[in-house]
Amino acid sequence: MPTSRWRRWLPRLLMMAAIVAAGMLAGKYVGQQFARSAPSASAAGGEAVYGVSLPDLGGTQQSLRQWQGKVLMVNFWATWCAPCREEMPELVAAQAKYGAKGLQIVGIGIDDAAKMRQFTDSIHLNYPALDGGYGALELSKTLGNSAMALPFTVVVDRKGVIAVRQLGPLTHEHLESIAAQLL
Q1: Could you say which DSSP state residue 169 is in?
Q2: 53-55/162-167 β-pairing
Q3: CATH code matching the domain that covers 38-182, chosen among 2.30.40.10, 3.40.640.10, 3.30.950.10, 3.40.30.10
Q4: If you count Cβ atoms within 10 Å of the first and of the last residue's Cβ in the chain, which end, N or C, has fewer?
């Protein structure tokens, strides 16, 4: 590359590198905050889940403890995750079918809140969506998502025991099996 091009592009490249580095540091900081606030996954099973409190997409803080005693399915997702987007209509259907029988699905989004609101409105989400931000991947890791990939789902039974950890999308058949076993 000629010297004049380097002089033009070097400041831009340095700025992009600084933005990426700042984003990585911010993500690490948020992840550490989640790790401090959430009990370890080895703590009494569901207590690691019940200890989580995050804002919903309207900004109101929600504690997962409010659903203790139900079969609580916590699904980590993002709008940029194609398997997550494909799985969510199945979760909507499961919430509609089994909600009255004691199933409570809660989505923890790892994304920009405005994008999550737009997507959840478009699919008529019928269960709570919480704003975990980009640091929620660390939270999912404390719950057993060692790959830190999406979608990731944890199911806590009525007694507070983690009954299912699922990396990858839940199929209709798997959701039916979970309902048959735990409801």
Answers
A1: P
A2: unpaired
A3: 3.40.30.10
A4: N
Tokens coding 26: 């911010």
So what's the pLDDT on residue 46? 80
Asked if 88 contacts 96 with a C-beta cutoff of 8 angstroms, the reply is no
Q: What is the tens place of the pLDDT at every residue in 51-90?
A: 999 999 999 999 999 999 999 999 999 999 999 999 999 9
The amino acid that residue 166 corresponds to is: Q
Does residue 150 contact residue 83 with C-beta atoms inside 8 Å?
yes
Side-chain half-sphere of 158: how many Cα atoms within 13 Å?
9
* Cα gap 160→99, rounded to integer Å: 18
E strand or H helix that includes residue 92? helix 82-98
